[in-house]
Write a structure and sequence with these properties.
Rossmann fold; binds adenosine-5'-triphosphate; alpha/beta; 9 strands; 32% helix
Length: 256
């Protein structure tokens, strides 16, 4: 099955503009970041090819969010050195949806979008995330999963070349997570941004990513390419083997 064969009809109906094609790689060289005298990123170098879906896992406090925030250029209270090259058109998705409570779903998606067809694009992307007909809903009338879909739509409406996602599904219940994984995969197939997904969830990384990185004490200690085809079944032997390998890298003993 081709990668595009998984896109559902709604998602496939949306053809992102040509600029959506991620044509600039991510290139990080010898990145060091410290808060005060605490070194959080310790000489990290990484290349991510355009369109690649990379998951970053690691223990709490290992430096994952600091790395993502460095790529998003979000921290100004941090010291450091090294170089970062990322596409200019990038979007960031956080664990909380960060929707404006006084704006409806559509306005949250299109806020700041200065295109003459902003409304039309907003509706189309809301349709892609399965929220057709909910354009005028207020955030507090949407479930957690729906709010996160609006946030996803807000990220995708600008056709980002790079999507930086920091535990975006961490607060969702298990069933909603499974559904949104499926949706995320289909949307990425259509929109084709380069993705860096920070997650605590090894299974989430293995279900979605082309490549899984493990960070430990500010260093990348594993860089694993996942070649098994999608959809990946958690019950398969390959999945089990990969999961155990990553859990071992995280220092988690696996009992069989
Ligand atoms: N603004 C800050 N000021 C001081 N220390 C910070 C700041 N941000 C992060 N740190 C420290 O840097 C270290 C790495 O934090 P970071 O959030 O990057 O880890 P993480 O791997 O994303 O953790 P988690 O999985 O728990 O979110 C932690 O020890 C944290 O306390």
């Amino acid at each position: 099955m081709t990668r595009h064969a998984h896109a559902n009809d709604q998602a496939a109906a949306y053809q992102p503009p040509a600029t959506a094609a991620a044509d600039r790689p991510v290139r990080v060289r010898n990145l060091v970041r410290a808060f005060g005298d605490k070194r959080v990123l310790d000489i990290v170098s990484l290349d991510i090819a355009p369109g690649e879906f990379v998951a970053l896992i690691g223990k709490s406090g290992s430096g994952k969010s600091t790395f993502l925030r460095a790529l998003a250029d979000l921290d100004d209270d941090v010291q450091g050195s090294g170089s970062i090259q990322v596409p200019e058109n990038r979007a960031v998705l956080f664990q909380d949806s960060r929707l404006l409570p006084w704006e409806n779903a559509l306005n949250n998606v299109t806020l700041g979008l200065r295109a003459t067809d902003a409304g039309q694009r907003g509706r189309r992307v809301l349709n892609d995330v399965g929220l057709a007909g909910r354009e005028h809903a207020w955030p507090n009338a949407l479930s957690g999963g729906e709010q996160q879909r609006v946030a996803l739509a807000r990220s995708l409406v600008r056709s980002p070349q790079l999507l930086l996602a920091d535990e975006p599904f961490g607060a969702l219940d298990a069933l909603t997570r499974i559904k949104i994984h499926d949706l995320m995969f289909k949307l990425v197939e259509v929109h084709r941004p380069t993705v860096l997904l920070v997650t605590h969830d090894v299974d989430e990384a293995l279900v979605l990513a082309d490549r899984v990185l493990v960070m430990d004490q500010g260093r990348l200690i594993v860089d694993k390419r996942i070649s098994s085809p999608h959809p990946r079944h958690k019950s398969s032997d390959t999945f089990d083997t990969l999961r155990n390998e990553l859990l071992a890298a995280l220092g988690v003993a696996v009992s069989v």
